[in-house]
Structure formats: structure tokens, C-alpha cells
């Protein structure tokens, strides 16, 4: 028994695609592994992964309706009915939010958007001028298209997460955590990875809280009227409609933050996966064929990431960029109809900054992933020049690794386009110069 703990365990990543779901071990009674531990068993690594990040995040996805709320290997009829009912309720709640935003003339880029118009009425004895707040603008571009895009992204995310063979996130987490067992300071690396993943989750929560605060502030500015209910809604009914509007808007933001945070988490995991694969070939002597198989598994996960997970994020990014640009045009007094900033300038700028932040996040993480993939392509050349690590490896095997890595064609894609840090810096430079020139020419004037 004592000798078992001293033997090094070789991890077969191909056999770890499916987590050992038959043995649901209680994670609440896991013994804490000291940081000085250098050799961790596969069971310990998987339990640590499940306890610290995987199970809590899967519960969040289930709460948002993206996964089944109650999961079992063979769910009963009643359980399937309950899961479908919960998903249908979430969808109806989303639809109700779109309708309430139109009824209250609530725009995510600028708040409750009412334009003050005047109506002059002539009588035999006097002339009366009546000022009214009306909801002007294009219904299709202001409410219909953004709502359809947001709802389509939500349905696509549900389809991806509910597809029968979709275990992308659990499998990816397992493989990344398992491959760290072959590296030096494996437990420290795993703890750092967990902190990084929670960093993205916490930032998504902070983004939702900030959006919630901005929406509540916007409700305090001006009067709010609901179409078709101007004369029939009592004071308590109006407050009820306002509360429903805030809750539904928060649900929209939670869905968006969850989908984009899932993309960021998987991008971070794939980035670490590529870097760990490079460290593995550089730190120790491995069988070239086995290492190439691991690269092929990485390519499959990356292709699924680019061709499935990224689509809903691309749809949401269209909305987020349009909200950012529309809000910037609005506070710059360039709107064709409304040239007055109705809400506080500080909160308007904060609102635009929030949309810019969530719009740029996927591009930044995709650029990091592409950079890691580029490093993986150079690992064969570095392994070929290492004089000590691969001293006993035949030259023909090292040449095969070099030829294989240089022919790799892996990168992160959004809108079917390679995303790199160079492209992002170039585009941001063009945008910054354009804004500076427009400001110098007095086209952009902030109050």
C-alpha cells in the first residue's frame, strides 16, 4: 500500500473524456492536499476540479436555463417535464422583457427615451400649446432587431448546451486539470487556474450588478409611461410594471453575461491547454505519437469552440457594439431626433463603458488563445534544440514532431475570422484616431 503512493501515475487523456460519473463522490468531505504535494492522483485532481469550479458553474448554467435544471443519467418522465417547463418559463420571461421594454420605451443604450414634442391647439378664444413626451424613432432598429438577435443568441446557446453529446466544458476542464499532473508544481498551477476562472465569473457578476444599478438610476429620471396602459394603470399597477421591467432586464443581462463568461472560460481553458501541452513536450520526454494524439484532441475541442460556442457570442457582440456606438453618438449630440441627454452624463458614460467592456472581452480572450496556439506551433522547434530533455529520443521522432507542429493550423475565430492581438491593436488604433479627429473637428461635443 505504501508503494502505491510513490509510483508516478501516467494520465491517459483519451480515456478521461467522460468523467467517472458512476462514482458520485461526496466533494464536501475532500481532504485538503498540501501545496507541497508533487504527485497527485487522477481522482484527487478530478475531485478538486469538480469542487472548486465545475459544479458551481454548471449550476449557474442550469439556473439560466441553458442546461437541464435537474440532471440525472436516466431522468424520469416527471423530471423531463419539469426541466422543459422551467426552460419554457425562462423563454417566456425573456419574451415578456422585450415587450415591457417596448411598452416603456426603454433603450439599453440610453435609458427611457422620450422626446418632448409640442401640440398647438387653436380655439375661438385662445391658443393652447401642450407639451407631450413621445417615443420617437424606428421601431424595427430600436426594439425589434436587438430583441430578435438577443433571443436568437439565447436559443442557440440552449441548443448547444442541450445537445446530446455536448460535454465540452466538463471535458475541457478535466483535460486541462489532468495534464497539469505531468508538470512541475502541479497543485500550485491548478490553484492559479481556479483563481483565474473565478476572476472571469466575478467580473461577469460585477458587470450585471453595474447594469442593474444603471437601470435603477435611469428609472428615477423622468416619468415612465407604458403604452396601451396610460389610463388604465393605477399607481400600484405602475409600480408592478416597473418592477417586472427591472427583473426582466436583469434576466436579459444575466443571460448575456453567462453566455459570454462561458466563452471566456473556455477560451482561458484552451489557452492553458495549449501552453501546458507545450510545457509537457519541453519539460519531459514523451512518446511523440501520444503527444500528437493529445494535440488532435485539442484541435477537436478548439474546432467545437470556434464552430459552436462562438456563434451565440458573435450575435450578442453585434448588439453590444451597436449599443456602444449608438450611445456614443447620442451623448455627442449627433442623434437625428434626440439631441438632448435626458439622463445624467456620468451614468450615460458608465452605461456605454459597460457595453464596450462586454463587447471587447471575447476578442481579447480570443486573441490570447490565438497567441497560445502560435506558441504551440513553435514547440517542435524548441524541443528539437533541447540537448538534455530529449537526449534519448531518436532524431527521426524529433523531426516528426517538428514537421507536425509547423504544419498546425490552429487559432481562435470570431465571425469565421482569425482573431489576433495585432488585428485588435490595429482596429482600436483606427477607432481612437477617428474619435480624436471627429472631436477636433467639433463633430463630437460632450455636455
TrEMBL record:
The alphabetical list of record keywords is: Membrane, Transmembrane, Transmembrane helix
From which domain of life does this come? Eukaryota
**Where does the record locate the signal sequence feature?**
none
Membrane-spanning ranges: 81-100, 197-219, 239-260, 309-332, 344-367, 424-445
Is Transmembrane there in the keyword field?
A: yes
Coiled-coil stretches: none
Protein name, per record: Gustatory receptor
